[in-house]
Fold this sequence. Notes:
Elements: E1 2-13, E2 16-28, E3 33-37, H1 44-51, E4 59-64, E5 67-68, H2 74-84, E6 85-88, H3 100-110, H4 115-128, H5 144-156, E7 162-166, H6 174-191, E8 194-199, H7 202-205, E9 210-215, E10 218-220
Parallel strand pairs: 3-8, 3-9, 6-7, 7-8
Antiparallel strand pairs: 1-2, 1-4, 4-5, 9-10
Helix pairs in contact: 3-4, 3-5
Amino acid sequence: MIKMKNISRRYSTGHTHTYVLQNITLDIKPGEFVSVMGPSGAGKSTLLNIIGMLDEASDGEYYFMDETVHELPEKKRSNIYKEHIGFIFQSYHLIDELTVYENLETPLLYKKIKSAQRQSMVCDTLDRFGIVGKKDLFPVQLSGGQQQLVGVARALITGPRLLLADEPTGNLHSEEGKKIMTLFQKLNDDEGVTIIQATHSESNASYGKRLIFLRDGRQVDGI
């Protein structure tokens, strides 16, 4: 599903280059559950953003489902993201001005799904995640755990082939976090969703079936 060859990401100021990632090479097959571990500043979020096509590599090659991502124009990358990828952010990224129902509906609008089908998909998702009673509330009216649950539901409503999760339980207490991780495990085991999570938590990482370690933007054998 994913092949990366010598991916680097650098930021330049004048003649000074600061590398956030250096020479990352990955091969991730469909149906894998991969945990990317490393301390703060290791490059975990940057790697996920590049995999999710929210950022571009400075160097290297990236192939996603046989598409040559590093050669694609931005519009084509955006279409691939909308079609195949769900992204769960640590800071939720819900739209404050929209209700829970409207936040869930937004990805379906981008895919130009018709109104009746949108309504059915949103209602099914609200029921699946046990948040029917929250549908008319705004994000500010929800707890952190509830906001993250809505974020997970929004990422999954379109049935993505790949789920990316950036410190998905970082703002949750332990019981809420465990529920989210158990949900990921079920999605992977029962539905074959490919999952890549970035985490500094050994407990969360253990849900994955493969570990990738980063330190100072480089792959290492251990931490």
